[in-house]
Design a protein that fits this description.
- It is a single chain.
- The chain has helices at residues 54-66, 85-93, 110-120, 134-141, 147-159, 179-187, 216-226, 291-294, 300-312, 318-321, 334-337; strands at 17-21, 71-75, 100-105, 124-128, 166-171, 193-198, 229-232, 242-246, 252-256, 269-272, 277-279, 288-289.
- The chain is α/β, with parallel strands linked by helices.
- It has a single domain, classed as Aldolase class I (TIM Barrel).
- The protein has a twelve-stranded mixed beta sheet with strand order 7-8-9-6-5-4-3-2-1-10-11-12.
- Strand 11 and strand 12 form a beta hairpin.
- Bound molecules: iron/sulfur cluster.
- Iron/sulfur cluster binds next to helix 10.
- Iron/sulfur cluster (SF4) binds at residues 258, 263-264, 267, 269, 281-283, 316-319.
Length: 339
Amino acid sequence: MPAPLTVLDTLGRPMRDLRVSVTDRCNFRCGYCMPREVYGPDHAFLPRAEILSYEEIERVVRASVALGVRKVRLTGGEPLVRRELETLIRMLASIEGIEDLTLTTNGTLLAQKAQALADAGLHRVTVSLDALDDETFMRMNDAGVPVATVLEGMAAAEAAGLGPIKLNAVIRRGMNEHAVLDLAERFRGTETTVRFIEYMDVGHTNGWRLDDVVPAGEILSRIDARWPLEPIDPDYRGEVAQRWRYRDGAGEIGVISSVTQPFCGDCTRARLSADGSIYTCLFATAGHDLRPLLRSGASDDAVTDCLRGIWTGRTDRYSELRTLDTVDLPKVEMSYIGG
Ligand code: SF4
């Protein structure tokens, strides 16, 4: 394989990570992402004809790998609601140059699918779990799914070799800040790393307010007061979570602090929506539609050139520029491009 190019955006950031949303559908209705009052029974999801086929996704991923992408994460909506996802995973796992092929899931379908995903070549999974008590968790997922279902999925993923699992928990004031210590206690001393995520003003339908944000600093102090922590240096440029280890050796946790400690300077992530648009920021208001090109008979080189042009023109650093005025911008929904 020819040595990959390293394309840099206008702030000198390489494109290292591609997040691929394979569907805009989900079986949860988390208020911070897909509130039921917006995504109700009449919500029009993307029509099938507009959704990229696995072959089209593979072409975009190959083009991105030629431009330096090393990590591919499958997302949604909930990626496991898309049929035969293992077929796509098998295609992507055969692409030389991908060092990390991962998937973010709410874990509800993991118990059934973990082994097939691992057999297809998936490296590991990240599971979202916002609380350990059913009352809070079911209120947050608004789909009546208990914690046990997700824990069973995590056990199946570990048994299939998709660990060590990273666990994401979005912490929202007045809703689940008690879960910080619950989750820390439950997963201390295990292979699972809990990453606590500041509640973000993604999209424009979750009614985000700054008052509902529990800052990463507060999350860390809550845990440190109980189990002293010390910082760990990042593994690589662009690592999203700040890492902290327990001083007593019981493992580590992470915090993702887009609101209070933005990390745009090292952001190496591009996102592909299920209908074929490239977004260069989680908080973008517009994407670059690749679908016409993909369906025009254009060559793979043309797709690579187009992607190179998108990235080299990138200027995004929303979290560094966030103000209360930017909150209401018509930003793309997270369920549409994956977190
Ligand atoms: S706000 Fe945008 S540019 Fe900044 S870290 Fe997030 S995705 Fe990257």
